[in-house]
Amino acid sequence: xxxxxxxxxxxxxxxxxxxxxxxxxxxxxxxxxxxxxxxxxxxxxxxxxxxxxxxxxxxxxxxxxxxxxxxxxxxxxxxxxxxxxxxxxxxxxxxxxxxxxxxxxxxxxxxxxxxxxxxxxxxxxxxxxxxxxxxxxxxxxxxxxxxxxxxxxxxxxxxxxxxxxxxxxxxxxxxxxxxxxxxxxxxxxxxxxxxxxxxxxxxxxxxxxxxxxxxxxxxxxxxxxxxxxxxxxxxxxxxxxxxxxxxxxxxxxxxxxxxxxxxxxxxxxxxxxxxxxxxxxxxxxxxxxxxxxxxxxxxxx
Length: 301
Fold this sequence. Notes:
By secondary structure, this protein is mainly beta.
């Protein structure tokens, strides 16, 4: 029993399923199932917190005031202090299932999900404004690129944009073959990438109006993108990490375990990637070389 007790006191546990990363100027925060919140100031040592009620945390974002906001599957927004270790919950007044959260550059909180629904709050969740395109589609990703510009992707390959800070949203086009966008990354309002369960990665240079599929040396499902300086990485199933080279995706960490990677963050000089079964790796983004079926310069936390 002493060994069981000691294991339960560890910050990372094999029963964890990590979902999303965020950071501010002080701390990196990783969230997952059963109310798990991990925080680190150095990408080496981690502290573990379990939120009240053990909610399933599915997304997290950092705000301009350095607070962090996380979304749980029961449509609660969880708000932390700047150290990520003191959390309160706020219920979002909607019957639609929420799937994604972001904090706009002006500090407004945004969530989105079922029935092409967006909600935002300008006063820390006290009041919410609702917008819907009245389309029976689930919004899976939402990201603000500037105070006025944001891009969202949804079921059936829908691409939604706003150019007025979310006052209105426009459907500007669709991904090829009604591709379901599981992950989205827009570097600018014009250039972006989407990935999905079939392992395809599509790229646009005109704000989502036209898309081209990029080649990849792996067919694993893609769950997340992360920018590291001028390099773009993609995370996938079986603990796979790929890097964009020109217009091709090259594997830098090949399949090593039957575990998904869904959360990613560039923090303290490391590329942090995390996913199922409590997997959290710290990769050196400058030395990710495939060697004998294993990525060098990687450390399991």
